[in-house]
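Posted in: Structural Biology > Protein-Ligand Complexes

Title: Requesting predicted complex, pyridoxal-5'-phosphate in pocket

I'd be grateful if someone could produce the 3D structure tokens for the following input. Sequence and ligand are given below.
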Amino acid sequence: MIPIAKPFLGKEEAQSAYNTVLSGWVAQGERVEEFEKKFCEYTGAKYSVAVSNCTNALHLAMIVSGIKTGDEVICPSMSYIATANSIVYTGAKPVFADVSQHDYNLDPENVVKLITKKTKAILLVHQIGMPADIETFQKICKENNIKLIEDAACAIGSEYKGEKIGVHSEIVCFSFHPRKVITTGEGGMITTYNKEYYKRLKLLRQHAISISGKERHNSKNLSFEDHLETGYNYRMTDIQAAIGIKQLDRLDKIIDERRRIAGKYLTGLSGIDCIILPAEPEDRKSNYQSFAIYLKENSPVNRNELMKKLLAAGISVRKGVMTSHRETAYKYSADQKNLSVSEDLCDNSFMIPLYVPMDESDINYVIETLRKIVS
Ligand SMILES: Cc1ncc(COP(=O)(O)O)c(C=O)c1O
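-- Reply #1 --
Done. Output follows.
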């Protein structure tokens, strides 16, 4: 079976985790600091704060951005449910906007229509690694005096106008889940250029304790801590960070290879009338966290039949990105009428295997099999 995805982990990551275990310090400590520093160097961000996963990163991003009960935050329904959940955790309401067919990201026109007096922020997702048009949303936020928060869970290493995702907005959140381009098992990172946000994020991730574990450990004086506000345990461990440091070293090579495989798919599957392949706008560079294909109505097989045939041929396949408004947890918004593109993309697109390293014969087999099924 050709898997849909596979993390690229090697002896370097294993050795790094092993060394950390034997060092005797496994909770948040110096490896986490080193990982944060490397993350700043890689993305160009001013500050980075590592946390336990991207869902928690988004939750903290909402808190430091001042999102509270009664507020509204506009986000795509077509995203992993963590996007909407991070808003609900604060007591605010996610207001679902539709996405654009061409890049699977928020449709600015639809977003503008949903802005009310209660709107405090837009949560902009870079879906499956394709950067959204950040400048358009910065302009909308400025005009309406609301915040822009980026959900870059899938977009590490992707670029917008020649710069890495992580530097454009006041606050950006990343995921290191194994389904992402690099992994720490579970893990997340927040980047910001706002020093006040940075200081508060570092507190909130560890119960807002006034003295860190490391400071207390190293202190020669008696010191008593205070808890400055209600915080959370959203810490990353040093074992995870030790893996992340080595994964960051590989990231550019991983992305180059993902882009090469995506290029082979784009060439090998071109000219098929009943599918729409991903298209990268000139000013953006995707890390191809996933490779999604849209199946048009004139296809000889429907999407689910096609998925069954691929599976039967030994090729793992996934349906398009979920819509949150049709999940039981968000059923109160199921009658939103503005989400037709999201529903169509979710119901008629599918994802094919893409991972590093991937055998050339497997890449060719996916292309040939798909061509046969839809021809
Ligand atoms: C767009 C998006 N946001 C947030 C998340 C949550 O990330 P994590 O699993 O690290 O909490 C995901 C994970 O799939 C995602 O795809």
